[in-house]
Design brief:
Distance between the termini: 24 Å
Structural class: alpha+beta
Shape: elongated
Number of helices: 7
């Protein structure tokens, strides 16, 4: 059997993980130890991983159970090694120094993900309410033939795009200014789709989680109607772990 690898923790930090692993045919999640390190692995059949939605969720849930208690270096989804022995030799033994250094760097730290999504029609109403010039141009071309208003429609699209970008920037400033002083690092990512206004992750000390939770709660009360705040954590530091090891499959 091959070994699916979820992440790396300190040896002895986790006794067991009860969350089912990837692939229903595979075994339970267990730990492979080597000289102060342990890899979270489970058995999977030899050959390519199917990579179903359930597998992706299982990968995340295993890591989330572990990170509730200990510092975790997450592997990205889909890392399969020929055997548990290979995980010990080729990962833990070969890269021990680098793995220990990263575990030291992230000791006591977790990731918190915050996203704000909003339906496009709600975004448009907010933009029009804030920008009289957009509202006026929209009224001027409404009901007129598309070919006769070609350039006006282009201009309208440009104005809407500018206003939407400004709204995202203001929202990012509001959120980051409220949470960043409570965090160790901040990563503002690109929105994953048109309805996403903000995609930001914070690296935070465990002892400040309740304080950050309260700050996020206050932010949620300040958001305009129709904006939906999604807040997830604690998570392994997916967006902050650097691929310091050549060829490593860190998240």
């Amino acid at each position: 059997m091959a070994a699916y690898v979820y992440g790396v923790v300190r040896a002895g930090a986790v006794e067991k993980v009860t969350t089912p692993g990837v692939n229903a045919a595979g075994g339970a999640v267990r730990l492979v130890d080597h000289d102060g390190l342990a890899a979270l692995v489970s058995d999977v059949p030899d050959g390519p991983l199917t990579g179903t939605k359930d597998d992706v969720l299982a990968h995340s849930r295993v890591l989330e159970e572990a990170v509730e208690r200990v510092t975790v270096l997450p592997m990205r989804f889909g890392v399969v090694m020929p055997s548990a022995e290979a995980a010990e030799d080729e990962l833990l033994t070969e890269h021990q120094e680098d793995l220990v250094a990263q575990l030291d760097a992230f000791e006591g730290l977790v990731e918190l993900d915050l996203k704000i999504v909003c339906p496009e029609e709600v975004q448009m109403r907010a933009v029009v309410a804030e920008r009289p010039d957009i509202a006026q141009l929209s009224r001027e071309i409404r009901g007129r033939p598309a070919d006769a208003t070609y350039y006006e429609r282009i201009r309208l699209g440009e104005l809407v795009a500018e206003a939407s970008a400004a709204m995202r920037d203001e929202l990012a400033e509001l959120v980051v200014s409220a949470i960043e002083p409570l965090a160790v690092r901040t990563d503002v990512g690109e929105p994953a789709h048109e309805q996403m206004l903000l995609n930001v992750a914070f690296l935070a000390k465990r002892e400040r989680l309740e304080e950050i939770d309260r700050a996020v709660g206050r932010l949620d009360q300040e958001l305009a109607a129709g904006m939906n705040l999604k807040y997830v954590g604690p998570l392994p530091p997916y967006r902050f772990v650097e691929a310091a090891i050549e060829g490593a499959a860190w998240a």
